[in-house]
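User: Could you walk me through two proteins back to back? I'd like the raw sequence and the structure tokens for each, with a short line separating them so I can tell where one ends and the next begins.

Assistant: Of course. Protein one, sequence then structure:
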Amino acid sequence: MRAQFVLSEIGVGLRRNLTMTFAVIVSVALSLGLFGASLLMSDQVDTMKGYWYDKVNVSIFFCNKNDPSGANCAKGAATEQQKAEIKADLERLPIVQKPVLYESSDQAYKHYKQQFGDTPVAGLVTPDQLPESFRVKLKDPTKYEVIKSAFSERPGVQEVQDQRDTVEPLFNLLDGMRIAALCVMGLMLVVALLLIVNTVRVSAFSRRRETGIMRLVGASSFYIQMPFIMEAAIAGLIGAAFACVLIVGGKYALINNWLAEKIKVVEFIGWDSVVSVLPLILLIGLVMPAFAAFFALRKYLKV
């Protein structure tokens, strides 16, 4: 009997405040959708960092006789002895993955033609203008400064270049987008909480006669509050379910069927990352409105 009464009161409350309940559902769905998207974006940044940092190298460019630029190139092109000493020193470092790859001017020119073969600048460079280099892969890509400090001042070395610099701006942009999504999510969450509090207060006010009778017959405060708490929890859970639909739809339509086909060089997050986020969203959607309703009733309505 008590369970039937609570369920009937929940139905009455949802019907009486249909417009505000709908607003709560929409705001919860948007805020939790942004929350889930920001978590997935963080996973995407970590995935991309792991993918690209594993592929980028540190390049040690040697002085070229046709382009003797750099403080260490005053005596001309790097000698075979200088290259051999640098290679031996590199292979002795524990942070360097072996083998250290050598790229000649002809090989560098071949890669240049592959990259810029269809552009007007392709014919402006000849093989003897491109420097020889060592391609060094590090066990920990963050240790680039060790290589730079050890070899940038060596005779015959024109430049030590970290290829991470070419992808770092993209990661910074994605981090900025993630932070922006979190800020918008926080704002939407505040709006959702305010709507939940107002909805509970309006619902309690419209049923103040029923709650007064329940107090007179000795009903406990928690039993009186239960229908209002359940109404908020149900609305929040529905909003969380819509948020899950938005996230799954975004993964399927935006990532799988668009970005993955347009951008082949990026490894995107899989469904396992999405599935791991959905239970958290549903839990927050259920618990957050229930707590908001519980404290709103205690503080404002003195039930």
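----
Protein two, same layout:
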Amino acid sequence: MPKQFIALLFFSLLLISTLFAQQFNQQPQHAIPLPEFSLPDTAGVVHSISEWQGKIIVINLWATWCPPCLQEIPEFIQIQAEYADQNVQFIGIAIDEPELVNDYISFININYPILIATTEGGKLSQRLGNTMSAIPFTAIVNQQQEIM
């Protein structure tokens, strides 16, 4: 009897924890407003994120020293080409030194804007919803300027 009781207790706790986890994960996520920010591009020209207002914006934070970041860029180039006429705009934000970014993009044909965020990149990443402060990080912004 004690073995059956322990097994029943174990499976009951497992069932309760599974149901709790499902309930926790099914709570609706709330969109957060896109913060206003401005960053220079690779030529030093400052751009405000509001330049792309009204578009579906895919913001990707990356760095030249990050292998997973570099692996996903060719896919982003392809997706940008496929969906540009559907009001989708990719924006790459390099958390890196401008010289390193310019070296990298000199041999890859990126078809979307690349902005440079050196020291302020980590804080911007958090403001965009990156709770882990890890890169690569991608945020999707709807046409109402909400991060989904």
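Residues 17 and 63 are 39 Å apart (CA to CA).

Let me know if you want the two compared in more detail.
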